[in-house]
Amino acid sequence: MQNRLVALFGAALLLLGQPGGVQAGDQVTREKLKAVASFSILGDMVKNVGGDRVEVTTLVGPNGDAHVFSPTPADAKTLADADIFFVNGLGFEGWMERLENASGFTGALVVTSGGVMPIVMRGERHDHDAEDRGGEQDHADQAENEAYDSQGGGNTDPHAWQSLFNGKIYVTNIRDALIAVDPEGQETYEANAAKYLTAIDAEDKAVREAIAKLPEARRKIITSHDAFGYFGNAYGLEIVAPEGVSTESEASAQDVAKIIRQIREEKIPAVFLENVTDRRLLDQIASETGAKIGGVLYSDALSGSDGPAPTYLDMFRHNAGALTAALSS
Ligand SMILES: [Zn+2]
Q: What burial letters (b/e) apply to 211-247, b meaning 16+ CB within 10 Å?
């Protein structure tokens, strides 16, 4: 609605020839393509490629958890009105099929991870900290399990965007899909994608160099958030998951004792434990092992615009910085 109003306003200015109005040649009467992205990281990529031609709505916003998302009727309405729907795939959006059916969406569905080389999760299934899981979310979990199973592996790691090499595959898929539904925009999408791919290449080089500077023996972290398999493979970092510790609830003192033993045995120099929020337990880990306590690594969602990771590339910048701070000497 807002777009239509803006378009009409622009057209009126053009007719009246008012100074400061739109320039001739601006496509003021064209409706923007309506795109929906399943989660914030994908939303940012689509915005970069779509530019002014595309209006992007993101279902799971900054700091949200796409694994346990429960779409609302408003989300179904948003999707019903959309021309194109971008999802990650690889079993990430267990709620997707239900939402698509409920919405009656008839636009183009784009699986942006198409063409990446999937890896298998090392642990059991990936599961997120979800303190307040309701019944709806149990259904979502079930659907997610089915999605995993239907993709053969049962244990496919969906977090493929955590390698910038894969990020370039996502961007290429987004570009081609936008051109397919909006051929008039081909030049724009190609130019935007080319510029974005160059920026991704530069960030990839920066992350690679940052990790390569770390002493080899220190390129190892323990994290409760098992979402960095692709990152570890791409940039040469060993990611260790805490053994026998639930990632779903706040770690107990007993869990912390196990983690301390594991950090000592495996000589892990830094810990990124998001399910240990008790400062005293973190201090205990640090003092008993000498391991540094890292900050927050962004994995499945961006931060808000005032946070440290408001875009896909900012997320890599932030994560590389946090890792460097915790692992250098
Ligand atoms: Zn995840």
A: beebeeebbbbbbbbbbbbbbbbbbebebbbbeebeb
